[in-house]
Amino acid sequence: MAHLKQSKKRTRTNEKARIRNLRQRSAMKSAVKQLRQAETKDAAKAVLPTAMSRVDKAAKKNVIHRNAAARLKSRMAKRIAAMGK
């Protein structure tokens, strides 16, 4: 357990950040999962903007690395392009 006042504050702020990051990551993963589970190309295209936005926001807030975000976005677009009509 921390003894110094600043150490205690650091512990509190780290916990808040962890919870905030967890929410952000969860929202992103849910959006990507919805896109993956879309059965038709039209359904996937409808979900794509939301998923891309969530990934971008997570990258902007350093929840995930920007290259990981680019990779995810690329794979989502590739998946939609490969879908049949």
Give structural notes.
With 85 residues, the protein is mainly α. The chain has one domain: Ribosomal protein S20 (Methane Monooxygenase Hydroxylase, Chain G, domain 1, Up-down Bundle). 82% of the residues lie in helices and 0% in strands. α1 runs antiparallel to α2 and α2 runs antiparallel to α3. It is elongated, with a radius of gyration of 17 Å. The termini are far apart.
The number of helical segments is: 3
Order of secondary-structure elements: HHH
Q: Quick one: CATH class? A: Mainly Alpha
Q: Distance N terminus to C terminus? A: 58 Å
Compute the number of strand runs: 0
CATH homology-level superfamily: Ribosomal protein S20
CATH architecture: Up-down Bundle
* SSE class: mainly alpha
Which runs of at least 5 residues are low in confidence (pLDDT < 50)?
none
| Whole-number total of structural domains | 1
Largest sheet: none
CATH fold name: Methane Monooxygenase Hydroxylase, Chain G, domain 1
Mean pLDDT: 95
Identify the overall geometry. elongated
Q: What proportion of the residues is helical, as a percent range?
A: over 70%
Strand content: under 5%
- Which value, in Å, is the CA radius of gyration? 17 Å
